[in-house]
Amino acid sequence: MLKFVLLVNKHGQTRLSQYYQYQPLQERVSLEADVVRKCLARDLSQCNFFDYQDFRVVFRRYAGLFIIIGCENMENELALLEFIHLFVESLDVFFKDVCELDIMNHLEKVHLILDEMVSHGEIVETNKYRALAPLAAMHKAQATGR
Q1: What 3-state class would DSSP assign to 71?
Q2: Sheet of 2-9: strands edge to edge?
């Protein structure tokens, strides 16, 4: 089960955060700061996951963005790395070469895509076109004036 998903730039600024288990705001701030600091400090020769407190952190870097997932220790790290790649591919399909600016300017759409793929901390959709279908339908409805 996923505990959280973070999108962070290379300067440590959080661009998106989605939590699937309740945590008080103060704990979220310190957790994000700690996890992001550890991810940014890791060398390219080190693996993309590590244990932190009572869960595991899996992350991947794409250009200037880090996608970070906190999950239970029993989760498959390679499957989560593949999920991160699928999420980025979905963003690429929708935004036509996604960048940090796209995420900042269309945060609600990024949340919608993530919500289509993950529900209550469980990955429920692994087809990028099915995950993007509600967003496409929404755009189609807006274009027709409904």
Answers
A1: strand
A2: 14-19, 2-9, 65-71, 55-62, 49-52
How many helices, marked H, and strands, marked E, lie in the chain? 5, 7
pLDDT digits (tens, 9 = 90+) for 3-41: 999 999 999 999 999 999 999 999 999 999 999 999 999
Alpha-carbon span 84 to 105, nearest angstrom: 21
Tens digits of per-residue pLDDT, 71-86? 999 999 999 999 999 9
Q: Write b or e for each residue in 69-102: b if 16 or more Cβ atoms lie within 10 A of its Cβ, otherwise e.
A: bbbeeebebeebbebbebbbebbeebbeebebeb
Q: Which long-range contacts (CB under 8 A, 24 or more apart) does 122-125 make?
A: 122/1, 122/2, 123/2, 123/83
In angstroms, what CA-CA distances link 17 with 57, 69, 103, 110?
14, 10, 12, 11
Categorize the per-residue pLDDT at 142 as very low, low, confident or very high, splitting at 50, 70 and 90.
Answer: confident
Going by C-alpha positions, the residue among 87, 38, 43, 40 that lies closest to residue 64 is: 40
Res 44 pLDDT > 90: no
**Residue matched to tokens 């932190």:** 52
Work out the angle at residue 118's Cα, subtended by the Cα atoms of residues 23 and 1, and round it to the nearest 5 degrees: 60
